Queue: 3 jobs
Job 1
Amino acid sequence: MIVVTGAVGFIGSQLIEKLNTENFNNIIAVDKFDNPTKNKNIEDLKILEKVDRDIFHQWLDVNYEEVEFVFHIGAKTDTALFDKGLLSKLNTQYTKDLWLQCIKYQIPFVYASSAATYGLGEYGYNDDEGLIQNLEPLNPYGQSKQDFDVWALSQDEKPFYWAGLKFFNVYGPNEYHKGRMASVVWHAYNQIRDTGTMKLFRSHNPEYKDGHQMRDFIYVKDVVDVCYWLMHHRKDSGIYNLGSGKARTFLDLTKAVFKAMNKEENISFIDTPEDIRDKYQYFTEANMDKLRGIGYSKKFHDLEEGVEEYVKHYLDT
């Protein structure tokens, strides 16, 4: 059995679909299952059992002998949430408890960290574990992920195989339920479909032209391909960046969405809200040398390829 937490969410559901495609069908799906909209993400997938996240630790204590691998993708991911207690409980402590169980029961463990741990990028975007304790996230969500990464690295005892994945700006199928936390691709598609135009944030940094703010956008199918590869690799434990390795502008992304929709470009700019302006990131780019260095060689989708597939095969259907 393979455990996937956050099973009905964006990345979790895509990971289960990937596992099914590779004929792994004894999936233990862990989540709350209280959102009918999100539940649709897994309704056509092969799943052995659904387990509520609140009782999963007890379930694992009983069924650990049957569990081959744990993917801990579930988390509270709202970067605008300021309930530090809730984030600490669901993101940090929950992961600590699961980590300790994977040590006890000798289960390999891959968990979702986040590029939000990098803050404004004062130390770059290099997944050198010697730098991780210095990072300064910009919000409580990023801090909850940072707290676990630092704790994990400080532990004398670790699962026999483990990996933490710092997801960058992931986009793709099954993110529709995330609302304002969904990717810019999703928002651009909906805004262009409804209004024929796309509004981007104006640059308030003289080093960047309007629309030339840059992010590392990665297609969700590349993310789950890496997860699947790690399930078989099972060596070189540690914390890894997971982005495309290539920063692209919001203008590039928006143009790609217009092209995929076969619509004429109509792009305008609005001021970045003042309450986020001083914490706005103008550049993120994952250094992917570490993952490549342990043998992951599959090519990632470039932005235009990923956007075209997402729009034409999922959003336009």
Job 2
Amino acid sequence: MDSKAFFKLNYGVYIVSSSADGKDGGCVINTMAQVTSSPARLSIALNKNNHTLKLIETSGTFSGVVLSDDVEMDLIKRFGFQSGRDVNKYDGLPQGRDGLHNPYPTQGVCARFACRVISTLDVGTHVIIIGEVEEAEVMDEKTPGLTYSDYHVKKNGATPPNAPSYQENAGRTVGYRCSVCGYILESDTLPDDFICPVCGKDASYFVKL
């Protein structure tokens, strides 16, 4: 099986959030899609290790935002390469709150949705969640949504290990992988003073492929 075939699938980049027991959380995903238009329903897929999944399971609701093509990488790093178990990702961040009491970032976003969970499906490493849309709003008329391809090409983005599209080594045979965020340095050697360009960890966090 040629795993590179999966790279031909098109994705967007989104942030999904929820609030439960007085705690807010969210994560970056590339798997949010419209399932039906009437009633309006979206599907998302979250890794079972994601703290955001636990919040959604408790609250029964979630917000989803479409990231803009010009979104700052700092927002993606904040939500995609650290765990809500360790940090409050919404601390100090410009944000809104939908009618279901879920937070959502307001900068670098071109559309938002508020959804109530109606069904879930366990698919092994991930859980697929179907949500009925109760709110939808365009927040930026002019800026297109960020595609997953442009995230990699234009922004030099890495794929977190918890992402559905993550592939161990992705066909690479030489290099070093950051054990925190999954960034891969394709090189025969790893400089002692190397710093991960995605999550900022030093060379001690890298493992040889």
Job 3
Amino acid sequence: MSKQLSQEEKTQLVKAVHSAVNHSDKRKRKTITQACKDLGLARSNYNRWLGAVKKNIKETGEAVVPSPKSRAPKKNGMALSADVRQRIEDMARSGLYANPSQIGKALREEGISVSDNAVRNNLETVGLYGHRTVQGSDGKPIKKKVILR
């Protein structure tokens, strides 16, 4: 199981490999692969960290491995705006629409780009869409997903 290394530990490993490869005594010099192996470091990690160090030297003048930037999205790019969410709720409460696909179709006709699933998810979140027991044609109760008013 691997552990996360800090910036300082990564920088120290890069420096250790660099010093082993560029040893003053030619007989004690190692290849990059051998130096990485001796330190228990993957060559690919060394190359990635070395590139980051070189880039950081150019940008800031410091020979350290910069902390990684989060690759997680800052916000959902497809999230509905507050006014669109409010419009969906108002349309559902109006009683003119029987299901989320009708609301989605009406919004698209107005020029608002929204999927039927986004409409359904928004309605479920605010509690306007869910199961209701209705009477079937044979008189037996059945569960059906409907817009709740």
